[in-house]
Amino acid sequence: MTDLTEYHGKTAIVTGAGDGIGAMLAKNLAAAGLRVGVQDIRREAAERVAKDIGNGAFALVFDVSNRDACFASAEELKSQGPINLLWINAGVGVGSPILTGKPSNIEWALGVNVFGVIWTAQAFTPLMSNATGPRHVGFTASSAALRSPVGTMPLYATTKHATFAFAEALQGELTAQDISSTILCPGLLNTQIWDGARARPDRFGGPRRADPSISKQWDEAKTPDLMWPEIARSIAGGGGYLTCATDGEGTQTAFETRANQIASRIMKI
Fold first, then answer.
1. How far apart are CA 55 and CA 185, in angstroms?
2. Which domains does the chain have, with CATH numbers?
């Protein structure tokens, strides 16, 4: 079931929609007949995507790691009526260790990938309370949340474990309000997440461009559009977990191995 007819004419908000997965979500939701609020910390990116997708799309420019900014944007949006769909997608890739990581990098990763999820949910889900028809909240976590965070990007992976956990907790609270939800865990895709610091706020160290030589694995990866049919099916079908693995059996094997290791050490006392 991928028909989003019940959402036609409704308003959706997608965070981190200036490019990548967020832009893909905004584009396809607009094509399905929704009026989309395109959020990004970069004004030019949000406005460009909103203009490109049309159908009444509009830009929302604020920093999701700033709670006051989230609530100010939601307050401004309130006058435009309720929203039926919210996709909490904004996230940053941070290639930093934890033990020796700079405090500003750790605070930035947590600010966007963890607190940004909470502040966005707190600010915008109240705008769904008076909406008629189906209501849905999506969360973009990562397939990194399904495996051990040990690896080359332990800080990023750890924050995505937290994104996943908060999404699960919020799933319970949303269900109590008759709002369905999807937790999306994408694998490595052709996005610009490797260069996320290009829009890093000054309080976290300011903008910095990554070395383009590190982009090869993302440049050669599959595009986010491939996930849309399953995402639409999840929205229409009432949500749940959705993992879009891009590494063959790697993600499933890693998840099952980790789960089995944990299960094998459950002591009954």
1. 28
2. 5-263 (3.40.50.720)
